[in-house]
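Hi R.,

Here's the chain you asked about this morning:
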Amino acid sequence: EQYSTRQNKISRLIQREMADILLRLNKTRFSGKLISVSVVRITKDLGIARIYLSIFPSEFADEILADIQESNKHLRGELGRKVGKSLRIIPELEFYIDDSLDYIDNIDKLLHS
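And the predicted structure, written out as tokens:
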């Protein structure tokens, strides 16, 4: 489906700010783990931002995702404070694991086996 320029702009903005928020959270809560925001997809009505996270080492992914999902309201509040001037409505946040790295890793293993 075609993405509007506005959707792209907002996706990038959310990706940047969310990465920043998670980086700070990471220092206190998930020390020694790497969490990056790989993709943000925003719905046409700009109501929902689906945030895909890449978590390393990946065996902690589910645990960290659960923790982040529990902090959803807090994270959305943080995001609101950071982008409130640029966005009238702060979208609902949905967090997912981006397992494309595992997928690539797996293909790599298959190719070299």
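The first strand starts at residue 34 and ends at 42.

Let me know if you need anything else.
M.
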